Amino acid sequence: MNKNNFKRNQYVVTLCVLYILGCGKEPSEFELLNKPNPKGVYGNSLSNGIIRDVTQLLKNPDKYLNEDILATGIVKEVCPMRGCWIQISDDSTAGGIRVKVTDGEIVFPKSAKNHNVTVQGTFVRLDLSKDQAINWKVHLEAEKGIDLNPNDIILKEEDYFEYRINCAGAVIL
Question: Does CATH number 2.40.50.140 belong to domain 28-172?
Fold first, then answer.
């Protein structure tokens, strides 16, 4: 093999390696969290079924507990640290439902705020002790960069539980 062929082969191999490394790169959690356009499918594809809005679920939550449901709403908040939850609501509901995913498996982008979403997962009620409720409030504020003194927290009745959808898939429109 002459010197020119060797250099050409070396060049081709280098290009192939760079191509493989560049194309196979998965976006980082940071990139997913800061994705400018949130529209798309997250996690599993949604199955067919009756889609319920947040008001419907919260009006009679016991009817849907531990059921696999499809729910629709507007994204009101996104976990600012890891995109591991969104809070969804609708126009007629003051509260909302937290849609939780396994950290790192699905990352909801912060840009999803105020977008319509349909989610699928198990509807659950998370009951909290006094200490858990306080720690949860401290945690949520810490995610926003706010240092909250646990001794300053005054709990309300609704702070002792939270309705959630343990999400397997979502579509943001």
Answer: yes
> In the block, which residue shows the tokens 């979502």?
170
What pLDDT, in 10s, does the model give residues 50-82? 999 999 999 999 999 999 999 999 999 999 999
What letter does residue 60 receive in the DSSP assignment?
S
The total of other beta-carbon atoms located within 10 Å of residue 161's CB is 13
Domain map (residue ranges) of the chain: 28-172
Give Dmax over CA atoms of the chain in angstroms: 82
pLDDT on residue 18: 46
If you search the block for the tokens 């950290």, which residue do you land on? 103
Q: What is the pLDDT of residues 7-26, one digit of tens each?
A: 566 665 555 454 555 555 78
For β-strands 161-172 and 116-127, DSSP reports them as: antiparallel
Residue 52 contacts by C-beta under 8 Å, 6 or more apart in sequence? 64, 69, 70, 71, 72
